[in-house]
């Protein structure tokens, strides 16, 4: 799909598709937005701008020289953004910005919330130009990335309250509200998911910062003696602050991962401790029962009436005594 934005005396207009392509003056076009374009739409954009459009494979190249380069009097800049965060399948998508003369060309293969919001606000204006559209899109992307990071921060706060919000104590009667092993495992999986998304987000912010820095060298279409560095400085500062916040969230995730693993180990150690105490408690009675169960002719108390009850009493004392000692030592 291609969206053609033009400036006229009546204001800003948008045409979708190529039904009216022959009626549009070339000099009136200030923005061409290509969303999963077909061959005809790519050919039309190449004819209008006299450049070769990058393919989807070209946009996925990770080399800096393949994402930021100058060719045919046009500045090609590709960045990555994290899309579909609200769904179960977040993805990394590429967006290419091309500055050629007084025209901005954007090429993308995933619908973006930032582009939708900005395009609606753009149509309410009376006039604009390539620079304002480019800066507005960058600011919209930065705002969207900030919203995504805030969402991740909220999720981490929720997980933190779930894991650490209850007071842990040795008294078993007060541990009913503490997270059990299954809850901790669920929290561990959620931390892994959020951590992976934050890693992708940090990569997207790094690419966006490189794009802004590279775009700052482009000459303004209004005044060739100026460049875009000064108008893009606020966006650059915002991206730097978002990168610092993403680093903070990443460090918080690492701390929570270590803490959750430690709590899981504590829960598992408590289970092992129960089996250990049980085996220690039943070991002396088992020894006494083995002694009295030997197949010898002469065994103490074998011929007495109270011998059986005496052996049971010994086994009971042998079982209770370790429990008393463990209680005094605060092992249980």
- Overall geometry: rod-shaped
Supply the number of helical segments: 8
Question: Biggest sheet, in brief?
Answer: 7 strands, mixed
Low-confidence stretches: 167-175
* Order of adjacent strands in the largest pleated sheet: 2-1-3-7-6-5-4
Q: How much beta, percentage-wise? A: 15-25%
Secondary structural class = alpha+beta
Oligomer: single chain
Radius of gyration using CA atoms only: 35 Å
Helix-strand topology string? EEEHHHEEEEHHHHH
Brief description of this entry?
56% of the residues lie in helices and 15% in strands. It is built from eight helices and seven strands.
Please explain how this structure is put together.
- The chain is of the alpha+beta class.
- It is built from 8 helices and 7 strands.
- A 7-stranded mixed β-sheet has the order 2-1-3-7-6-5-4, sandwiched between helices.
- The radius of gyration is 35 Å and the shape is rod-shaped.
Tag the structure with descriptive keywords.
alpha+beta
Topology:
Elements (H helix, E strand, L loop, with lengths): L1 E7 L2 E6 L12 E7 L3 H11 L6 H4 L4 H4 E4 L2 E10 L7 E10 L2 E6 L4 H10 L7 H35 L16 H35 L13 H64 L14 H22 L4
Parallel strand pairs: 3-7
Antiparallel strand pairs: 1-2, 1-3, 4-5, 5-6, 6-7
């Amino acid at each position: 799909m291609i969206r053609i934005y033009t400036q006229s005396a009546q204001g800003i207009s948008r045409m979708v598709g190529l039904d009216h392509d022959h009626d549009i003056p070339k000099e009136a076009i200030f923005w061409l937005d290509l969303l999963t374009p077909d061959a005809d739409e790519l050919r039309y954009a190449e004819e209008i701008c006299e450049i070769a459009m990058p393919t989807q494979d070209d946009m996925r190249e990770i080399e800096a020289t393949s994402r930021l380069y100058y060719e045919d009097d046009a500045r090609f800049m590709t960045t990555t953004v994290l899309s579909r965060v609200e769904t179960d399948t977040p993805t990394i998508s590429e967006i290419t910005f091309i500055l050629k003369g007084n025209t901005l060309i954007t090429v993308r293969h995933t619908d973006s919330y930032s582009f939708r919001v900005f395009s609606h606000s753009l149509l309410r204006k009376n006039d604009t130009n390539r620079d304002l559209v480019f800066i507005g899109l960058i600011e919209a992307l930065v705002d969207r990335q900030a919203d995504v990071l805030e969402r991740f921060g909220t999720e981490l706060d929720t997980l933190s309250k779930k894991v650490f919000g209850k007071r842990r104590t040795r008294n078993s009667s007060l541990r009913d509200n503490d997270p059990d092993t299954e809850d901790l495992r669920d929290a561990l999986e959620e931390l892994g998911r959020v951590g992976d998304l934050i890693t992708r987000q940090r990569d997207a912010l790094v690419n966006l910062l490189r794009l802004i820095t590279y775009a700052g060298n482009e000459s303004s279409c209004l005044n060739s003696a100026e460049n875009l560095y000064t108008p893009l400085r606020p966006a650059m500062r915002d991206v730097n602050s978002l990168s610092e916040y993403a680093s903070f969230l990443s460090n918080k995730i690492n701390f929570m991962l270590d803490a959750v693993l430690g709590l899981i180990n504590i829960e598992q150690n408590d289970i092992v401790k129960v089996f250990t105490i049980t085996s220690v408690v039943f070991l002396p009675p088992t020894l006494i029962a083995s002694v009295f169960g030997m197949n010898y002719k002469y065994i103490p108390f074998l011929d007495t009436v109270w011998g059986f009850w005496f052996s049971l009493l010994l086994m009971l004392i042998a079982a209770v005594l370790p429990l008393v000692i463990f209680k005094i030592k605060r092992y249980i």
